[in-house]
């Protein structure tokens, strides 16, 4: 954007010397009114403020399409999940749910959002369990969504953890959740009692999403059972309802066990339906395969095959220290790192596409039209939201899994992380603490230190 008739372009801010993914030379980003207003060599341009990116890698904001703000940071309370199974996790969460208070939910959700912001997540979709008749958790998370609107975009999905047929009250609660402002509904068909009830639960969820113009985000086939075939039902319903772009099938682990001819049929169906697959490599690698003897399954869906077929695939970090997963930082690069291993995607182009799955892939699944990265390209005129990393390229980013040095949201820095500094200490002389000399000092010019 050029400043009218003037010869010299003028911006509010220029970020100089940033390295875009896939580029060898650095570029400057001109920002006006919080939007990207110019890219390239802007040496002659003027700006009210200039920031030197010093050659750092510029990455679009991370997108987390499947998180649980209501269960985060509860691991070990009231007890730890010692078996690591989904069944024990659900049992522990059932008792933890009874202890929920509004203050408890808000405090943990805020702490979790702060973690996400530090890692550069500026868009997230959270599930909220609607098992509580008063929908207290949903109300609290909707309040948090408003409170953090200027920093992070949050979509809220009404999640019937105990099923829709298995817990009939959840159908009415999903309707109430939509009236309260939820962005979509969910289903857990593989946890319903029978195949037929699973299909019926999906019909109900799709029906609600179709009528209300909202999203349907299905917990789909999160099991090692090759007979769990709800992905075909999701794709079929997405096709017949015409709302495929608003449909997500999360997990889809059973697809790893389908025979090849059935899987090929499903890939074609999923592709035509336009739905998105969200893979959760951290939680599923630890939770799946628990009932296998050797050889054990890897526990994740067929990320590479879906992606190569042209289906939108996003990666999610999913749980953070919950009854389902005791670990977790909130850093989407952890999910990409795990996916690189479990999906056999360690090639350079493959690692670049993994970064696409924690950015653009999530944005497509969430229907983020304003997102500034499309087709692997940063868009002129889109929000000036991006991350600057001390990394060289996509594979270096996944290798190091650092926090971004700076997080920009609409042209302003909203978070920064200083790099950790390690000093090697010389612990000679039997490690006497008073004789410990910083190695850096010893390697310096001081003649008094030998
Ligand atoms: Zn989850």
TrEMBL record:
Please report the name of this protein according to its UniProt entry.
Amidohydrolase family protein
Q: Which SUPFAM superfamilies match?
A: Composite domain of metallo-dependent hydrolases (SSF51338), Metallo-dependent hydrolases (SSF51556)
Q: Where is the Amidohydrolase domain?
A: 49-392
Give the superkingdom in one word: Bacteria
Q: Name one GO molecular function term.
A: metal ion binding
Q: Which Pfam families match?
A: Amidohydro_3
State the InterPro entries in the record: Amidohydro_3 (IPR013108), Metal-dep_hydrolase_composite (IPR011059), Metal_Hydrolase (IPR032466), Metallo-hydrolase_Enzymes (IPR052349)
**Per UniProt, which keywords does this protein have?**
Hydrolase, Metal-binding
Q: Which Gene3D superfamilies match?
A: Metal-dependent hydrolases, Urease, subunit C, domain 1
